Amino acid sequence: MGKLYFKLAKTNLSNNKPFYIPYIISSIITVAMLYMMSFLSDNKGLNKIMGADSLAIIFRLGVGIIVIFSYIFLFYTNSFIIKRRKKEIGVYNILGMEKRHLSKVLFVETIYSAIISLVCGIIVGIAFSKFILMVLYGIIGIHKTVEFFVNIHGIILCVVSFGILFLLTFLYNFMQIKLANPIELLRGTSVGEREPKTKILMTIIGVVCLAIAYYIAITTENPLNVLTLFFVAVLLVIIGTFALFTAGSIALLKLLRNNKKFYYNKRHFMAVSGMLYRMKQNAAGLASICILSTMVLVVISTTVSMYVGIQDELMARYPNDVCVTVDYNSVIDKSSEIEKAIFDEIDSAEVKNKKAFSYLSVFVGQKGDNFTTDKEHLSFQNSYLFYILSKDDFIKRDNSFKDKIGNISKGEAVVVLNKKYDKKDIKIFGKNYKVNKSFEHMEDNDLYMISTLNGLGYIILDNDESVQELYDMQEKMLGKGANYYTNKIRFDFKSGNKKQKAAAYKKIDNVVKKYFKENKNDKKEISSYWVESRQENEQNFYLLYGGLFFLGIFLGTMFLMVTVMIIFYKQITEGYDDRERYQILEKVGMSSREVKDTIKSQIRIVFVLPIFAAAVHVTAAFPMVNRILKMLNLNNEKLFAGCLAATIIVFAVIYYLVFKVTSRTYYKIVK
Questions:
Q1: Of 136, 438, 533, 628, which has the highest C-beta tally within 10 A?
Q2: Secondary structure E strands in 279-341
Q3: What is the pLDDT at residue 564?
Q4: Contact, 326 vs 334, CB < 8 A?
């Protein structure tokens, strides 16, 4: 009896090749992708690279995403297959096989599918793991020998994750058989649906969810709110999309049916009526295709733009070749001493754009139209950063204001803010200053700071004594040691390649360390000090953004595969459902050409709706995604727009090719 189960299982898989071959191929690819991502996250060679911690986090995130989508995707495709096979199972039941016997056959089929998927997937993953690591090394700019090894942890992860997945698919299939009687199984693929009612409430819910999501995406400007509300907007888009495709699509089809000129056309009649009566099952598939298409477009376009714009991001975060920062526990300006120590070591004639200045940093909140340091109004969602400095220091920082500021009297202030400030006074730590002048201005040097704050500005006072007064007030409010006065020296090199600039940075770093070691008496005054270099941090940027780019392409490919497979199974299932209807139409006089035109009309409707909705979603999401990119130092909006446009074009071409292939397959099934 046991041999019979194995024989029946092999026969069933062979007879259902059109359904099982794409399913098993998809399983193999998914297993291989999971193994390769696990291989990258555990790779010993990557762990030796300085700053590779961010890569490990990125790849662990990738492992989690692949596992989650594998479950969703393979469950979804399995549901198509079991629906198509209900009639076959019903025949076995009628011929005398009990449900427990059928469940054993299904179990053996699941074992076959699992073994083929896991063995082939792991072999493919191992075979391509070295190649995928070479691709990653090329992306992040690492020139090292690629270490190859078989990742035992990755194999165990694949076996456990997909073993549980295949077990769950078997249990789902078993429950489908157990809960159905033989007659229902025989009619499983041909049970008609009543005409669905127009669900006004669900349509309203869908419209409201999308409207709120679009409003959040377009209007949210606070950087920290952007991060928290992004996921809320995504959830609302998913709910709204499913609601509109379930209820709104029915309303749309009924409107088309009421349009007699459109509906009573031999090309549209069958397509509209057929879709209307199957819209319950259509809606979930169309909504899934729309959401996945949106994910592909957003994930690939953002990661590509971040990778292409690495130099822009590096310039935004490190606007100068070298920046020396020293924080003091009192208002002390020793930048000239540190500057002398640096330029005694390197040739000052070889530098340009040199700036040395000092300032006091103050975080404030906004109360109505005014700024305040009151604790109840200070929050991450309502934060502004003000640099308080003397007129002389501000001119050292930005010489373009030398002739604009004019004289500043005691008790007066000049306000320079990235937003318009038209108040007559400004209050800091309870001390009121009359606004002498105000300017709306923001240098490129501050772009990386402004990306995470509501605003950033400068309060310019007459001299250091006035700055000292505010320092004392801040210390009284926050406590001793909680505030600091910053000296900053930054400059660029006139010439030299990256290697030479990196070597010069190391010299400067050693000089600064030596200076503070020799000036031990100042240790009580020093809070912290550090030296930053654009060239020194360039590799970290390539590791981070290159890793994100690699993950985006990797996951984008997976999402695209899932999208294509859902479309494929959807078209095959509907092809078998529609075959009898179109055969009847041919028998009553419709020509083969007219049948083909009708099929094309139906498939166009099915394909256009998801991609159109995805394009609308992406357009609405553009402002919010652009703000998130700014927080990641990418301020080049045109670059992101260009990458998004290129991604849409490439995706549209692939989508069109899928349309052509599936329409041909659908037509063959119907004929």
A1: 136
A2: 322-328
A3: 83
A4: yes
